[in-house]
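TL;DR need structure tokens for one chain.
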Amino acid sequence: MTQPGQERSLMQNLDAESRQWLAYAIRYARANPAVALLALAFALPAASAGLSFAFFAFVLLAPVALPAAALLGLYYLYSKRKTTVKVKKRSTKKATRKTQLKGELKGIPTNLLPPEKLDPVPIYKPFESSIQPTANYGVIDKLFKERILLEPKCKPTAVVKKGGVPAFTPSPKVNVRDFDSLVPPDPLDAVPIYKPFESSIQPTANYGVIDKLFKERILVIDGAMGTSIQKYKLDEPDFQGERYANHSHPLKGNNDILVITRPDIISEIHSKFLEVGADFIETNTFSGTSIAQADYELQAEEEVYLINKKAAEIAKECCKKFTAKDPSKPRFVCGAIGPTNRTLSVSPSVENPAFRNVTFDEVVAAYTVQIDSLVAGGVDVLLVETIFDTLNAKAALYAIEQYFATKGVRFPVFVSGTIVDNSGRTLSGQTNEAFWNSVQHAKPLAIGLNCALGASDMIGYIENLSNCCDCYVFAYPNAGLPNCMGGYDQTGKEMKEEVRPFVERGLVNMLGGCCGTWFDHIEEIADLVKDYEPRKPPTVEGLMRLSGLEPLNYTPDEKNMRGTFLNVGERCNVAGSIMYKKAIVDGNYEKALGIARKQVEQGADVLDINMDDGLIDGVSAMTKFVNLLISEPDVSKVPFMIDSSKFHVVEAGLKCAQGKCIVNSISLKEGEEAFKHHASICKYHGASVVVMAFDEEGQAATFEDKVRICQRAFRILVEEVGFAPYDVIFDPNILTVGTGLAEHNNYAVDFIRATREIKRVCPGCKISGGVSNIAFSFRGNEAVRRCFHSAFLYHACKAGMDMGIVNAAQVKADAYDKLDKELLGYVEDVLLNKCDNATERMLEYAATLEPKCKPTAVVKKGAGTGVSEKKASGASWRDEPTEKRISYALVKGIDEFITKDTEECRVSGMYERPLNIIEGPLMSGMNTVGDLFGAGKMFLPQVIKSARVMKKAVAHLIPFMEEEKRLAALENPDAEADESSHAGVMVLATVKGDVHDIGKNIVAVVLGCNNFKVIDLGVMVPYDKILDAAVEHKADMIGLSGLITPSLDEMVTVAKKMEERNIKLPLLIGGATTSKMHTAVKLTPQYSGPIIYVLDASRSVPVCQSLMDKENVGDFVQDIKDQYTELREEFYTNLEDRKYLTLEEARKKACVLDFTLPENTPYTPNFIGTKVIDDFEFDDIEKAIDWNPFFQTWQLRGRYPNRGYPKIFNDETVGEEAKKLFDDAQKMLAQFKEKKSLKLVAILGIYPANSEGDDILVYKDDERTEVSHTFYTLRQQAEKESDDPYMALSDFIAPASSGVKDYLGMFACSSGFGLEDVIEECRANHDDYGIIMAEALADRLAESIAEILHQRVRKDLWGYASDESLSLDDLLKVKYHGIRPAPGYPSQPDHTEKLAMWDIMQVEAKTNVKLTESLAMLPAASVSGLYFGGKGSQYFSVGKICKDQLSDYAVRKKMDIKECEKWLSHSLNYEP
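>> reply
TL;DR here they are.
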């Protein structure tokens, strides 16, 4: 290196050539630094050695590394020359190229720079040597290339290329078989003919008579026995009679006992129903089982037998009398078999969801006694009714089938389910089609629905049953829904009209009534059905119809069996999952439940459950686990496969499942008698069966044995046992291939061939199998094993395989067409036995693979680390904040993480006390559960799951709460010790006369989850016992529950007695028939203490917590009292006489306009048709904003004289805040405009129209010969003191009879497209203020668009006000003529009129503005309405309308009257 002061100017040492190279270096300094460096290297003259080295570096390495070569040459020259080149910093000023170059190297003359344009570089021919290489030259060159690519440390027996994989050369195939081994033989044997099943059980004499009557006409079943009895106002002596005068328990409310103590009343009720036209009457035995009668201490078999026999005899005697009067109309007795007051599918203990307070066998035994006694009394039909839990019904049907088999006689069986709410499910969670699938095995003569719903709510579910059932269908709905007082107001004539659609649409073969129906209801129904033909049962396709909570109707696609293949989840099998087995052995059923849930989430259609292990008590484990699964709706929605080689374990599983299961398996291994016995029991349970290809001689391994055994079993099942072919599933044994034993090589081929042949010779059967067996030899090698599974399924499904026990997630991921083709080749050689050494070749290839790689992404050893599939967490909700995670877990019933999340809340510092967590996020989640349950979006099992999660969270917090109390006691020893750690004490009871306790039990559990001590007194509790318990246990509150109507009166009694005894505890009221109005009107006047109506279990907690809040309880109670006072006043006010005109009178006083007068003559529009407008100027829309509603949204209201915009800014109280808000709004509007955040769009239509009465006819064109749509309007009916007309919107359109051509306009507009993106951005920034602001402004913009659009219509498009010139203020004050009323608003309160608007303008198709089910518009920032252009048109309010107009309106609209009442409920002057 040169020393300071020794630097010399670079240019002094440059010759001409070097200067030229330097110029190149400068030119390319920025464009290509590498080239510039090379040029610089050549620019430096040097000794010949230096130049030669630079040139050598250039020639040799430039193609590979130009920059490196340049630097090497430069470095060498630099070190030789010891020359320092000093370069100044680049100027930051802009300059010309020449001045810039001057700045780069000071001192370089510009005349030394090369010219701007250079001659092209010459092209030189490559050198061609005349010296030829030797023959081995190329060979040696190739070896060098290969060897340098090898890993230096690899073995010679397993060569690995750098970055590559071991070289693999497979062994050659031995004895290759090129033919298709799966082709069926030709010719085929004829398909056998199977004899139809002939039962030895003979039908009763009346069976055929009843069947014939169903074909001939619509039959009628009687009305409600319970509510009929209530009309007699019976008291305790009536229920006791002589026989039970000294009975140990009160009997009032036990209606069944009246057949003994007051047979005259029961006979009179039967006779009246028969007199008005009933074909069937039901025995008074709804609670006639020992289980239900135990609540009255009458469970002895002698008493139960007497009740049922006597009831049947009374009913039979009545039927005989009426049949004798008119033999052409025979009458029949239905033996009523109720659901009992226990449920086999729902645990009464949230803490233990697998617990049941009654067993299947106990229910069967109880039903058997009832059936025997009903038949002894002479019933004609057995009616299993009001089924809220399908497993209870299956127990009844099991008892019935066993009774028939024992007695050798078959009675007609009717089955009636109950849909509890608008979720469309039974109380135990099943849809009605799943319910049908579960009971169809009993071959009921008729099936239907009763109770819980009125006819209008029930019809959709009856229609579903009518479509899927091949038997007769009936319905006996309630007389509408209960009113606020628990009674039924629907008259017979009203019910007649409500059930009319059932017969008009051909949905039923029998009609009747349930709760609230009296003789007049049945008389009207009998009169109605005379004019209609009965439903003709459809021919239903013979399918395997399974069910969990939801139906699974297996419909195989013969052309794509793989596409319809049923995945049977394999992981709940102790033989198939070590993790699952360990969970069961350890008693960790929650973990086992998680395994089941994951399988369903990953696509299992059916869930296999197997407990066959020496360490496990199969019956106990199966019972507990299936009961637990039933409580998990996300799992139990799919059917179960009850899997065991021990039949008593199979039975245990079947006794716990309400759905239609598959039994896996039965076989001929123990001979035909045992086979038929097992098959018969499965049939009694309604299960499909898997039959193993196994007989007395052993397991079928060959094609011939598989076909022979399966065909033999099929003949026995369909000919002798009576199984439907489609409920028979054969497992021809999937046996392991690739074992190394030659005799195993054809196992897969034999299975696939047998599959095709068995399905051919056993028509309708199904084929299943344990798919994992096929590749058992390759366990541990994921890619190979899974490829075997997928390839096997591909070929087996082509042959007709229907289902299999599989890892659902894997077989879906490993689609055949995605498998690695090289791997697939080796696999199929083994599967299809294509050569003798296929197994050896497979093993050789398998050894080259990473054991954990996937068959769709094979990884060779040495090419990287093979990894298993990334586990999908399935729980993205886990990324949410803790409070949201807790809410999600509560709603979904997931308790896996609840302890962890609760602890995270506890230590977060956000909650001062553990109790605050309960009151905060935990109760917030439970409130959500309550809302969803009330809306029919959650059903009972899910609510119970939610409570269980809550319980677990609270249990985690209790120790910390106890410690908190302990420390508080140490700090203040003199403080009175708190004897209880509970949040409060409640005495809870179902009142006397009512035996329903499921809702009460849920309340008890939910309160217990929230640290309340609940003293549950059970059912049928008299008032004195309730009050005594409250005193004894020092209760903080009393809770009363009731389901039936008389319970309301009993609750009034309890309230009165509390007042008499001066017990001033809060009284909580709940139950299906209770209501806030009833509580306010009937209960509060009887009791001066707090009385609170609680809607459902989840709402009980915040109410109880508020009552225990000593600081605020006074305000809470007073607020409730004030609410109830208002409700009472409202109730009695509504009862006062109101004056209304009849519809006919109102029409006579209509608004009559003379459309021939010039001021009323319709203006012919400039435009007719539909037009989309999306070119609005944002500034124009913004200017037209009405700001007053904007401030109301934010609850900012100025006081006079500063009301309204812009005066509100001057208001002393809100002015400053209003101005800030307005300024923020302006900023956001500016952002909307700049970013074009919102899309402003509108559609309008103007069409020829005339009125006809109260309707507006819209014509297809101006020829007015064809009506395309009709708009229906409503007329004012409330009496007016003046002579003002009674208006309807149709009054503003010229009548068709006038001959005057009129027009109607309509529109829809929106500013909501894009709003979601704005909101999401705000949400990401945790900007709730921004979200509300954006939504409020979007609403204002939508209204502004509507205003501007209406102006354009008036001035241009329609043109009836072309000279209009109004200020914005006048515009907003509606000083123009013409109106734009909207459906759902005062002038036309019916939202359904939007449907016609959307149809005629094709709104959704042209603008994407949609209507929801409730006919709200989406996006929400949307406006729609009609345009009336006449000067006589004006805004008005229809107000309340009477029933005559509602009925007329329903007829005109061709809408069900109940549907009309629903949409117009707020406009009716009566309670529907």
